[in-house]
Specification:
Blueprint: H1 31-46, E1 51-53, E2 63-66, E3 78-89, E4 92-96, E5 106-110, E6 113-119, E7 125-131, H2 132-145, H3 156-171
Antiparallel strand pairs: 1-2, 2-3, 3-6, 4-5, 6-7
The chain binds zinc ion.
Residues 98-100, 140, 144 line the site of zinc ion.
Keywords: Hydrolase, Iron, Metal-binding, Protein biosynthesis
Function: Removes the formyl group from the N-terminal Met of newly synthesized proteins. Requires at least a dipeptide for an efficient rate of reaction. N-terminal L-methionine is a prerequisite for activity but the enzyme has broad specificity at other positions.
Cofactor: Fe(2+)
Amino acid sequence: MAKKNPKIHEVVKYPDPVLAKRGEAVTVFDADLKKLVDEMFDSMYAAQGIGLAAPQINISKRLTVIDISFQKNPEEKIVLINPEIIDRSGKQVEEEGCLSLPEIREKVTRSEWVKVKAQDVTGKWIEVEGEELLARAIQHEIDHLDGILFIDHLSRLKRDLVLRKIKKLQKNGEW
Ligand SMILES: [Zn+2]
């Protein structure tokens, strides 16, 4: 069933202040929230991403969508509302990127496995577990809800290099 004219939200880029703010809890689970979730999936796919957090479309709320299969498997579409990591184990170090930091890719240390408590689009509390890439995406997206970007996990030196690269791109009008 093809959707007509999905509303695509523009993804805001670093250093937009909304990205550094802690999102507010979602308290109303209504038709508007369902619509926003659909729009977030559409916006994420349009931007070629596997995860998108509401602050990235300038909505400072604790809501994120993830699909590490990138549209290949509808069962892998995950909506996490007011999520909280309740258990984690192991360690993984992989390259990470972010729709709000285009062209920047750096290795980030994350937990190998996480368990999350969150609400679904109806407000029901659910638990989601993920390992490897899914665990990475979950941690990355929940960070967004706390105003944290993946570059905040880098060493001071690496982070400074990244910020310098961004400044250069901005100067050249490529950011
Ligand atoms: Zn991101």
